[in-house]
Amino acid sequence: MEYNRDKVDEVTLALPSLTMFSEKDVTRAWKGHAWEVLDRLHEKGYISDPRSKAKFVVMTEEGIKRARDLFTTYFEQ
Question: Which pLDDT belongs to residue 70?
Fold first, then answer.
């Protein structure tokens, strides 16, 4: 099936807004999404490398801002 990968990336990046948490000035989000999408988000500089044993990724400052903006765009009424 063909689909718009950029839109999938945007929605996938927006969803961590629901699960982001901060510890010691680092913001993390659970990484329960498709590896291919997480890899693209890492390449775009929004998250740390998802290929680790950790159950979460570290959000970059740009990733945090973009995730919150996208969540507002897609999901707020």
Answer: 96
CATH number at residue 37: 1.10.10.10
Question: How many other C-beta atoms lie within 10 A of the C-beta of residue 51?
Answer: 12
Pairwise CA distance, residues 23 & 1, whole Å: 39
Quick one: which of 42, 40, 37 has its CA closest to 58? 42
Q: Do the beta carbons of residue 7 and residue 15 sit within 8 Å?
A: no
- What's the domain range around 28? 5-75
pLDDT digits (tens, 9 = 90+) for 12-57: 999 988 889 998 889 999 988 999 999 999 999 999 999 999 999 9
Q: How many domains does the chain fold into?
A: 1
Sheet with strand 21-23: strands edge to edge: 21-23, 26-30, 56-58
Token couple for 29: 């989000």
